[in-house]
Amino acid sequence: MPTATRSDAPAPGQARALFRERVDVPTAGWCPGYTQVNLISVPADWAYDVLLFCQRNPKPCPVLDVTDRGAWTTPLAPGADLRTDVPRYRVWENGQLVDEPLDVMDHWRDDLVTFLIGCSFTFESALAEAGVPLRHVEQGRNVAMYRTNRPCRPAGELHGPMVVSMRQIPAGLVETATQVSSLMPAVHGGPVHVGDPAELGIDDLARPDFGDPVRARPGDVPVFWACGVTPQAAVMASKPPFALTHAPGYMLITDALDEHYRVA
Amino acid sequence: MPTATRSDAPAPGQARALFRERVDVPTAGWCPGYTQVNLISVPADWAYDVLLFCQRNPKPCPVLDVTDRGAWTTPLAPGADLRTDVPRYRVWENGQLVDEPLDVMDHWRDDLVTFLIGCSFTFESALAEAGVPLRHVEQGRNVAMYRTNRPCRPAGELHGPMVVSMRQIPAGLVETATQVSSLMPAVHGGPVHVGDPAELGIDDLARPDFGDPVRARPGDVPVFWACGVTPQAAVMASKPPFALTHAPGYMLITDALDEHYRVA
């Protein structure tokens, strides 16, 4: 078991130091108020297609930073090492998951370009402040994520389905959740769907494609947001020769404030 | 004199047809409610730097669409030809303005990638609806635009200063204008500065770097928004071998609704 719990509320730099020391946990609920991000690193000759894919699919893939070739630092998290400071990574070869290490020092290449992409955890603080309960945090679980039947708009060699995160929300609070998240368009914005999962091609909420199943309470309605794991689904579908990503739900915690991504 | 005036309120496709037939006017106030965009085309080997420059400078350079290499169409304006449907273009070689034609058929190249970038005209309908007067439209002029002393974050070979558009706003309506535009982050969002032009390094409001001087009325305050002409300033500073752009204020009018870019 990890020694740090959410109630410790470490600063982002302290959390990253724990993860660098191999604490291996999903980051939902960690460092409330600080922006968590998805990570994907690809060889430089794939970088244009990834950046264009993100531009063409801004709801699932809002880009918050792009490194220069080979760099492992970001202004969003001064002092962070992108090769070690995520709790768990995934290594992809030709679209296949080949490793899930706690750092990527042995996999790093000088030609990698790294994309940091917004995460719906960013609006969770705002949801909580607005009185919207977060079932996955209550249940100590990773958020549930699903591949959908909605294709992203392709870009060059990159294509794949949109991935969504799902939150069970009391019916009377769906409108509040929609309003609060819509004001944060740089981190997925408002929901892409409310209600019947079948309309997104999701057969069984109890069997998410990524993350953990999360139990509904009576009166809850499933609400779906575009998810920054979408680039991983594109990697699986498009099979670039090599990619590194975070493991879903095991995010990079930055020093940026969630509040920074609220437009009003 | 052009045969069409603002009071005709042509549909976007009709306006584009007029411009294709060589009607040569700034587009401020044309087709209210429809999104106008900035255009820049660069050779494919410069496209990554342009896209990354835009990602790193989202206030002045919100990308609304990127074409595939060589394409002159966009889903934002079905039926439009990007080589003819802007009222006036600029042709750049090594950072120098070499021509300002009414179409670019003779300058087109198969290796061009075209970026369509949000324009502050998009929130002008919303400002007008909120009761904020638009002095440049009242005066039948192009909006005034200025180079600033604020450098953009560079990307690869591309660097340059932020350009801003300026609107004279009655002091009592500055807060309204800020709120209304902040809800449209995909088209520059809220102002970057209110008040003293010197803080942006602007010496004389009567001598804009692009567009026309616009007279203030008593009680007006100058309000500055990041401007989609910023990529042109980057072209001038960074000197790519070739680029095409619209002429400042002579925009592509799309079929997208301004409303689409409002987050709440």
SSE map:
2 copies of one chain form a homodimer.
Chain A: H1 12-20, E1 34-43, H2 47-56, E2 63-66, E3 89-93, E4 96-99, E5 112-118, H3 124-129, H4 135-138, E6 144-151, E7 161-170, H5 174-182, E8 193-194, E9 210-211, E10 220-226, H6 230-238, E11 242-246, E12 252-257
Antiparallel strand pairs in A: 1-5, 1-11, 1-12, 2-5, 3-4, 3-11, 6-7, 6-9, 7-10, 8-10
Keywords:
globular; 2 domains; alpha+beta; 264 residues; disordered N terminus; PSTPO5379-like fold; 7-stranded antiparallel β-sheet; PSTPO5379-like
CATH superfamily of the largest domain in chain A: PSTPO5379-like
Structural class of chain A: alpha+beta
Compute the number of strand runs of chain A. 12
Rg of Cα set of chain A? 17 Å
CATH first level of the largest domain in chain A: Alpha Beta
Main sheet specs of chain A: 7 strands, antiparallel
**CATH-assigned fold name of the largest domain in chain A:** PSTPO5379-like
Percent strand of chain A: 25-35%
| Gross geometry of chain A | globular
Tell me the distance between the termini of chain A.
Answer: 40 Å
Helical content of chain A stands at: 10-25%
Specify the oligomeric state: homodimer
Low-confidence stretches of chain A: 1-6
What's this model, at a glance?
Chains A, B: Keywords: Lyase. The structure is a homodimer of 264-residue chains. Chain A has 264 residues and is α+β, with helices and mostly antiparallel strands.
